[in-house]
Write a structure and sequence with these properties.
single chain, 2 domains, 4-stranded mixed β-sheet
């Protein structure tokens, strides 16, 4: 598991946590090819984000809560992608993020897109 510390730009991999963690991070579903990283701030709160596309979770009190939420968001769920006449763009109906017609997954919430 990778843990990023914004104070130092290096990403740390903690062997002790590898043994005790029962859950692994699910991969980023949007197809960007990026890797999910855990960021822990000075207050020991955690969030997870993709180094490549920037999709991120909310901030949680513990890394275990962050992992649980991330894995749920990256699980098997679907969302409709619809054309917005107001903006002239396609939007993911689950999170409201702008998506491209070639996208299979939403980079905002990880849902598999169903096109109308």
């Amino acid at each position: 598991m990778k843990i990023a510390n914004r104070k130092s730009p290096m990403i740390l991999e903690l062997p002790s946590e590898r043994k005790t963690m029962s859950k692994k991070l699910k991969p980023v579903r949007c197809g960007c090819g990026g890797e999910a990283v855990i960021y822990i701030n000075g207050a020991r709160q955690a969030k997870i984000y993709c180094e490549k596309c920037g999709i991120e979770s909310n901030v949680f009190a513990t890394k275990y809560e962050a992992i649980e939420a991330w894995n749920k968001a990256m699980g098997e769920r679907t969302a409709k992608a619809e054309y917005s006449n107001i903006d002239g763009e396609y939007l993911c109906k689950a999170c409201g993020r702008v998506v491209q017609i070639e996208d299979v997954y939403c980079c905002g919430c990880g849902a598999r897109l169903e096109w109308k």
